[in-house]
């Protein structure tokens, strides 16, 4: 297989198997990680994808031939992998996963100690350049592989102070990795649970494990209504994202779930700093402030947010995409997020739709993609068109007015501009969206 530099992306390595990524590439990734980091001990894990067995094996061979001792935790969700890096006090880790991508994909997420991500601006391109050479020095020391089970320690963390005894829940694991943990999770927290697709299966026989896409939510939304459930919960393939469905069958936007969790979090951490990504509704920042917290905007993407959390000493962060980040791990945990939502429902005694309703204050789009060849020229045109606005260039450009805003940010890997907008009324949103789209469409 020829080397493909395009699989090395902003946040991880990801490509089609075997065209872009195969077991041999896994070996070179392991060697490059060992050479670049000089790590002595790392965690390795994989998700349920069929190609992961051989790729993981070769990643570990590359690491050990580079002198690294490997602790294999076997099949795991990505949050459990991050937890293991912390819990076992290793120098880093490599997780073989393609997250929510279709079955033909696989990839690798890479961290340093304390699960600090290795991304496009923090070493991943250096690893890519080492892999491209495919030549390695002979190691004086060969590492060893040992195994360790961290499942119970992780479950103890995510089930602490959570009780769902009187709730009816529909839970869709999408045949992803969280399904492996759910029987023990609900054995600990209780609840009357309707199971959808808990068996980990990398072929995704029921639907793709991406709850951000509406067609993948249909089964869970229908089941909530059929079962008269209090809540529906959907996880993605590697278990680092979660979406919630209220009792009326409506999926709650990720930024609104962020606001709900933030309110619960601030009961324990009075006055704490909480990050929200710049695509979030204004209602999210308002809810954080109303609950006594300090709301700080962040760029999109886990490596950006984890870095800023440490810099800002934030206790919690979240994204529109359904990623929720917790200290002291400085990492995602969909199961921790689940626990906070369950706790909020139990303590408030309110239905989920009642908790959400006050936060649906504005009219907002979902993220819309536009194919644009000259992205910089279009962004410059937008800045000129709205020169009287507050222009924020944290991630792409944000055009900010008192009664509406828009963020337009470029894709790192495709000729796309991504649009998110919000306005004080649906009518104003329609008007301003038409203006922006006319520019984006040329």
Tally of distinct domains:
4
Radius of gyration, Cα only, in angstroms? 22 Å
In this structure, how is the largest beta sheet organized? 6 strands, mixed
Strand order of the largest sheet: 1-5-4-2-3-6
CATH class type of the largest domain:
Alpha Beta
Q: Label the CATH architecture of the largest domain.
A: 3-Layer(aba) Sandwich
Proportion in helices? 25-40%
The poorly predicted ranges are none
Which structural class is indicated by helix and strand composition? alpha/beta
Mean pLDDT: 96
* Euclidean distance between termini CA atoms: 39 Å
The beta-strand count equals: 21
What does this 3D model show about the protein?
By secondary structure, the chain is α/β, with parallel strands linked by helices. It has 4 domains: 5-149, Alpha-D-Glucose-1,6-Bisphosphate, subunit A, domain 3 (Alpha-D-Glucose-1,6-Bisphosphate, Chain A, domain 3); 153-245, Alpha-D-Glucose-1,6-Bisphosphate, subunit A, domain 3 (Alpha-D-Glucose-1,6-Bisphosphate, Chain A, domain 3), CATH 3.40.120.10; 254-359, Alpha-D-Glucose-1,6-Bisphosphate, subunit A, domain 3 (Alpha-D-Glucose-1,6-Bisphosphate, Chain A, domain 3, 3-Layer(aba) Sandwich), CATH 3.40.120; 363-440, Alpha-D-phosphohexomutase, C-terminal domain (TATA-Binding Protein), CATH 3.30.310. The chain has 14 helices and 21 strands. The chain has helices spanning 23-37, 52-65, 78-87, 124-133, 151-158, 182-189, 218-226, 254-268, 282-290, 302-312, 334-348, 352-356, 375-385, 426-440, and strands at residues 13-16, 41-46, 69-75, 92-96, 105-112, 145-147, 168-172, 192-196, 231-235, 242-245, 273-277, 294-298, 316-318, 324-326, 331-332, 363-364, 368-371, 390-392, 397-400, 404-410, 416-423. The chain is globular, with a radius of gyration of 22 Å. The chain starts with 12 loop residues before the first strand and ends with a helix.
């Amino acid at each position: 297989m020829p080397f493909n530099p395009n699989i090395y992306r902003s946040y991880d390595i990801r490509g089609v198997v075997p065209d872009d990524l195969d077991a041999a590439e896994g070996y070179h990734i392991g060697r490059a990680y060992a050479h670049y980091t000089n790590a002595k001990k790392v965690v390795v894990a994989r998700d349920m994808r069929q190609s992961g067995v051989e790729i993981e094996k070769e990643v570990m061979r590359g690491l050990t031939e580079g002198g690294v001792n490997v602790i294999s935790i076997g099949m795991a969700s990505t949050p459990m992998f991050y937890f293991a890096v912390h819990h076992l006090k290793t120098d880093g880790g490599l997780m073989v996963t393609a997250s929510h991508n279709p079955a033909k994909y696989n990839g690798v997420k890479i961290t340093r100690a304390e699960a600090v991500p290795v991304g496009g601006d923090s070493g991943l391109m250096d690893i890519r350049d080492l892999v491209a050479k495919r030549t390695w020095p002979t190691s004086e020391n060969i590492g060893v592989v040992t195994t360790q089970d961290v499942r119970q320690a992780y479950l103890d963390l995510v089930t602490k102070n959570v009780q769902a005894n009187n709730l009816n829940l529909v839970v869709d694991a999408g045949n992803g990795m969280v399904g492996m943990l759910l029987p023990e999770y609900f054995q600990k927290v209780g609840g009357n649970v309707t199971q959808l697709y808990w068996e980990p299966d990398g072929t995704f026989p029921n639907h793709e494990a991406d709850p951000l896409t509406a067609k993948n939510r249909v089964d869970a939304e229908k089941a909530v209504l059929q079962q008269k459930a209090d809540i529906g919960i959907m996880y993605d393939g590697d278990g680092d994202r979660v979406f919630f469905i209220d009792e009326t069958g409506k999926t709650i936007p990720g930024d609104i779930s962020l606001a709900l969790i933030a309110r619960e979090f601030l009961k324990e951490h009075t006055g704490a700093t909480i990050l929200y990504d710049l695509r979030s509704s204004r209602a999210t920042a308002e809810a954080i402030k109303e609950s006594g917290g300090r709301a700080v905007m962040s760029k999109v993407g886990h490596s950006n947010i984890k870095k800023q959390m440490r810099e800002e000493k934030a206790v919690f962060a979240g994204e529109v995409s359904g990623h929720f980040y917790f200290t002291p791990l400085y990492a995602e945990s969909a199961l921790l997020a689940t626990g906070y939502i369950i706790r909020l429902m139990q303590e408030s005694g309110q239905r989920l739709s009642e908790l959400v309703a006050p936060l649906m204050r504005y009219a907002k789009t979902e993220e819309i993609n536009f194919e644009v060849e000259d992205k910089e020229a279009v962004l410059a045109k937008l800045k000129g068109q709205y020169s009287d606005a507050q222009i924020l260039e944290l991630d792409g450009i944000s055009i900010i007015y008192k009664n509406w805003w828009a963020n337009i940010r470029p894709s790192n890997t495709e000729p796309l501009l991504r649009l998110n907008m919000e306005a004080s009324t649906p009518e104003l949103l329609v008007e301003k969206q038409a203006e922006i789209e006319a520019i984006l469409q040329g």
